[in-house]
From TrEMBL, chains A, B:
The keyword Signal applies. Residues 1-20 form the signal peptide. It is found in: Endoplasmic reticulum; Secreted. One of its GO terms (cellular component) is endoplasmic reticulum. Its main location: endoplasmic reticulum. This is Anterior gradient protein 2 homolog. Belongs to the AGR family.
């Protein structure tokens, strides 16, 4: 290799390290998704404030879904939830949706305590629908994989907005 | 085709439509990312509550970045921000990070108003570092693409935690 070619290589190496995209020491990561596997084709709100805003402005009920990545009950529900076409379509067309792994500061979102998985509906009037419950008296907002039909029924209840009931 | 084969086809079609993953009427979407292009290799907090929790528990400063997808100033800053290897590495190793498109209910995050792009640092003691500002007196927490060096200097300031200054 000539001296000129060697210089060129050095310059190219220097340039490439300057403009190289950052890669963590531990190796390249898969970018985080907002859906976290609960429906990759759905449009998720990022925060509760954002969810409330969308719910009001679109006049659609908000579903808030609390879960944890290392909770086997959450993971089991997630699989059924993501695979159910009717549920996914209804959420996409008629709901504003938010999934959270950290509790908010709003105590209304934990009517009977903080646990996962837990699904709370909020009316566009910003009223938490504490009346829409699952089948477990000790964890009223919990759902198991077998409860998807009940969840679909509860979604129908949430779609009957409070204002129209007045 | 025999009657048996025709029945089999019908059953398969019925099965595939039952188990088909949901696809929106408007066509398949690209799943939303938490980074929104500000650093796909970084680990982003989803909400302010989550960011504060990580900041306290890891004793690292939190950077909160307000932006909008349809704001050209945000988009111009994003490009420089995502491409700067030093900035991305420092954020990954020494910061907790959060990008938001909707304002939170915490007024401390808008010391001189709500505008984008806006970058606010929060100390692990949960004190908003209103003292760490950019170069524009009318929008003290705004940065332009040319201000990346200043932003890096401000990140160094944020890394000097308030507790150690007492």
């Amino acid at each position: 290799m000539t001296r000129a070619a060697a210089s060129l290589v050095l310059v190219l190496v220097a340039l490439s390290s300057t403009f190289a995209k950052y890669v963590p020491k531990t190796g390249k990561r898969i970018p985080q998704s907002l859906s976290r596997g609960w429906g990759d084709q759905l449009i998720w709100a990022q925060t509760y404030e954002e969810g409330l805003y969308w719910s009001r402005s679109r006049n659609k009920p908000l579903m808030v879904l609390f879960h944890l990545e290392d909770c086997p009950h959450s993971q089991a529900l997630k699989k059924v939830f993501a695979d159910n076409t009717e549920l996914q379509r209804t959420l996409d067309e008629d709901f504003v949706i938010l999934n959270l792994m950290y509790e908010t500061t709003d105590k209304h979102l934990s009517p009977d305590g903080q646990y996962v998985p837990r699904i709370i509906f909020v009316d566009p009037s910003m009223t938490v629908r504490a009346d829409i419950v699952g089948r477990y008296s000790n964890r009223m907002y919990a759902y198991e994989p077998n409860d998807v039909k009940l969840l679909l029924d509860n979604m129908k209840k949430a779609k009957k907005l409070l204002k129209s009931e007045l």
